[in-house]
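Protocol step 6 of 9: fold each sequence in the batch and record its structure tokens directly after the sequence line. For illustration, a two-sequence batch is reproduced in full.

Sequence one:
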Amino acid sequence: MKKIGIIVGIIVLIGVVLFAIPMEIVVEKSAVINADRATVYENVSKFENFQKWSPWVDLDPSQKVIISGDDGKVGAKLNWESTSDEVGTGSQEIMAISNDRIDLELEFTAPWQSVSQVYYTFTDKDNGVEVLWGYKGRGNLMMKLMVSDMLGECYNNGLTSLQKVCK
């Protein structure tokens, strides 16, 4: 009976670690886009162009999208609303923008609530421009595992689509 109590205690402890302790979640994917820097930057920096290569548009083509502010500038905002839990509802706002980096605040309001950071960096390469697409947020270990896999796959799909759009 004592062994069962110890086993139950260990399972509870593992559950607390998996579900309660917040930790940083970082996902980064990159690809060299075989196009000139101006074309790549134009397609990444403007929300209107993001809709042409966003992996979430494919997941829910009927989602409602509203772009406000001066697109491609600090303060521009993309709001979306989807009935798909894979896409959710939320917004992205450009917080900082330069020739080498774009920083966004990503806020989800459904099916969960969270605020995190998304960023792009641009590095010139001999055969194009390396685009690094990154995400930083917080969550428990289970969320970290789910977000890392799901978001990593979406980012890879998006970067593949970006390559096609930039041709």
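Sequence two, same batch, same settings:
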Amino acid sequence: MRLAIIALCTFLLLATPTSEAQSPSSPAVGRWKTIDDATGKAKSIVEIYQAKDGRLAGKVVEILDLKDGPNPACDKCKGANQGKPIKGMLILWGLRPDGAGKWSGGRVLDPENGKDYKAKLELLDGGRKLGMSGCVAFLCRQQAWLRD
């Protein structure tokens, strides 16, 4: 009987999730300050997280550039996002690991023009920056986002 109790306690101890096991599996997970590649100004905070399917996704959690108000709508978006508030909007989805510190295969939405593009992410500067590229065919536009 005593051996069964010890075995049960050992099993429960090993089966209990630890904080290390619950930590994000991707170093890109977290809050990132988006920087406009044309003006160099901070525009928003995007929270990148691991979706249920294991891929990376990101949503706007804060608007920093208030020229269009505290929570502008995505007027140029089509479909379900048309006219919806940008804050809370999913703008990055479907990214899979593509080597050390790189992700690809996803999409990114630009709320300013309502279009989505092929997306690639790459950790830069020891993980303090995130290179985010949106591409159409072989033409890409890159922004460097800063860890918030």
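Proceed to step 7 once all outputs are recorded. Observation for sequence two: The first strand starts at residue 30 and ends at 35.
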